[in-house]
Amino acid sequence: MKSRSWVLFAPCLAALVLTARPASSAGPQVSPAQALFVDAVTLMEKNQFDAACPKLEQSFALERVPGTLFALGDCEEQRGRVATALRWYDEYLATYETLPVAKKQDHAERAKQARAQREALRPAIPQLTLVLLPGTPASIAVTLDGRQLATSSLGVPIDLDPGEHQIVTQLPGGPSKTTSVKLGKGQRERWPLVFEPAPVQRPDPIDGNNQRVSGNSSNEPASTTGGQRMGGFVAGGVGVAGVLVGAIAGGMAISAKNAMEQDCAATAGNVMTCQTQAGVDAGNRATTLGNVSTAGLVIGAAGLAVGAVLVVLDGRKTKPSGEAPGPTVTARVGGGASGVGVSLHGVW
Fold first, then answer.
1. Which of 118, 204, 255, 270 has the largest CB neighbor count within 10 A?
2. What are phi and psi of 194, to 5 degrees?
3. What is the residue range of the signal peptide feature (predicted)?
4. What is the pLDDT of residues 163-214, one digit of tens each?
5. Long-range CB contacts (< 8 A, 24+ apart) of 278-285?
6. By the 8 A CB rule, do 149 and 90 touch?
7. What CA–CA distance (Å, rounded) separates 46 from 56?
8. What percent of the chain has pLDDT over 70?
9. How far is CA 344 from CA 172, 224, 298, 328, 334, in A?
């Protein structure tokens, strides 16, 4: 490294010093760019490339000397950033072609070395191909190591330095997703781009005045519909239980009546006369169970009817504000000396 650096950089260093403007009779004045270049070459001779390369970039930014481009390619190559080194060599050779004939002769050896190094570097340069998956929106934004990529850069190999690289994808209005990929020298990698979908923006409902409102536009709370359905299920459950109680009590009443008829007989005026206390008890049980059966069947039928109505009404959409309230229904169950009854009341 030392022999190559000094042999190839010495002409450039000499050119920088010779073109400096004299500050006094004591000797030439060294410009900031020249001082940076000398410091960088000294650091490169000590294999301190991480410190040398930035100084060379600062020097080239101050004075765009072709030899500094070559030095940059050599420095980046030595510290392992092969893709960056290749770009500096390419820029140096492009600048070399624009030099006058006399200047080309001065750079002939460095140009030959740059071409050789460029060809040697190509197989060692990692390449990353970012692939759009089917269905990926065209509006996706992709950045690689903080640099936003054009659509034309997707699906084609990108030369990168070895190491870890950050990929960020984002859809308009959606969250960004960051992934990382680590590449070694000469590695070729195809990387599918993934992204987080943007949240769905649902439009606010329109009220009766044709104005957009936020939240629920119904006069009732949002939970009213769900509560009505639940009430329907509860009423239906009560109805089923009532029917079962009525049926069981009815069966027991029939059995008690049969037992009474075996011990009792009807006299004038349809008055039952029983021979034993067992017959009397059977008659009383038949009467009580009959009333229970009737009440259970009536309440069960009412519960089933009310439950069905509530479930059906729950399926309907709520009325916009300003319109009359929708159908409501209530059930009332009552009883008296003549028996048990049920009635439905409401607005339909």
1. 118
2. -115, 155
3. 1-25
4. 999 999 999 888 999 999 999 999 999 999 988 887 776 666 666 666 666 5
5. 282/256, 282/257, 283/256, 283/257, 285/252, 285/253, 285/256
6. no
7. 15
8. 66
9. 56, 21, 12, 10, 12
Print the SS3 string covering the chain. CHHHHHHHHHHHHHHHHHCCCEEECCEECCCHHHHHHHHHHHHHHCCCHHHHHHHHHHHHHHCCCHHHHHHHHHHHHHCCCHHHHHHHHHHHHHHHCCCCHHHHHHCHHHHHHHHHHHHHHHHHCCEEEEEECCCCCCCCEEEECCEECCHHHCCCEEECCCEEEEEEEECCCCCCEEEEEEECCCCEEEEEECCCCCCCCCCCCECCCCCECCCCCCCCCCCHHHHHHHHHHHHHHHHHHHHHHHHHHHHHHHHHHHHHHHHEEECCCCCEEECCHHHHHHHHHHHHHHHHHHHHHHHHHHHHHHHHHHHHHHCCCCCCCCCCCCCEEEEEEEEECCEEEEEEEEEC
Q: Which tokens in the block code for residue 329?
A: 């229904």
